[in-house]
UniProtKB/TrEMBL annotation:
Protein name: Cation efflux protein transmembrane domain-containing protein
Transmembrane domains' residue ranges: 47-70, 91-116, 128-148, 169-187, 193-210
This protein's GO CC annotations: membrane
Record keywords, A-Z: Membrane, Transmembrane, Transmembrane helix
Organism: Lutibaculum baratangense AMV1
InterPro entries: Cation_efflux_TM, Cation_efflux_TMD_sf
Length: 218
């Protein structure tokens, strides 16, 4: 995991471009019915989790939960694209995956600008709702990452789905810490800070994903 110090250790793509790609070959996603089942399960769980996080985030005014929701939505969409585009050119897959990443990047930028957009307003988010949702998210993300290990060593684009999802639990733990800080300080800045950090880290991952996807063209 750690190949270049702490920075690469936190790299959601592992610092790897995804390997050489034959432009004329068909997309190998999924390579087997078992891998297809894993991707469908990951897509369903991530999208369901995104709905829960978004509802709780907007209801309580938590920027951190909204950031988690965008991240889960991106993971679910990425897995869904891998399921839907199970045949056809790799170029079509890369275009669809890039579109998902760009849309997610715009949403993460909106989270970063939360203080300017009025997300959450002036009210204090409920820290115990934050903790509860983050713990549910933690359990689901650990399970999804464990299931996606099946495709972690895939020789094509499928591996990128795993690399995007495997560190989501770190963000969940960050939200738990932020919620405890909100409770201790009776202030909303820890929630906003956690949401912005999650969004910035995810934007970094999106940038590396886009670079890896299209580096295969050269």
């Amino acid at each position: 995991m750690v190949s270049n110090g702490t920075t690469n250790g936190l790299d959601p793509l592992g610092g790897k471009p995804g390997g050489p790609i034959d432009r004329d070959s068909e997309l190998y996603v999924p390579a087997s019915p078992a891998e297809g089942a894993v991707l469908r399960q990951a897509a369903s769980l991530s999208l369901g989790l995104a709905i829960l996080q978004a509802l709780a985030g907007f209801a309580t005014g938590s920027v951190a939960l909204v950031a988690l929701a965008v991240d889960s939505l991106r993971d679910g969409a990425a897995a869904g694209v891998a399921v839907i585009l199970r045949s056809g050119s790799r170029g079509v897959y890369r275009a669809a995956a890039s579109l998902v990443a760009i849309i997610a990047a715009v949403m993460f930028l909106w989270v970063v600008a939360a203080p300017l957009t009025g997300l959450g307003g002036a009210r204090l988010p409920n820290p115990w709702v934050m903790v509860g949702v983050a713990l549910v998210s933690l359990c689901i993300n650990v399970f999804v990452a464990f299931r996606l290990r099946r495709i972690a060593a895939a020789g094509d684009e499928r591996r990128w789905v795993f690399r995007q999802a495997r560190w989501d639990f770190v963000a969940d733990l960050g939200v738990v810490i932020a919620a405890l800080a909100v409770s201790d300080f009776a202030a909303r800045w820890p929630d906003r800070l956690a949401g912005i950090l999650i969004a910035l880290f995810s934007l970094w991952g999106v940038a590396k994903l886009l670079r890896s996807l299209w580096r295969a063209e050269s």
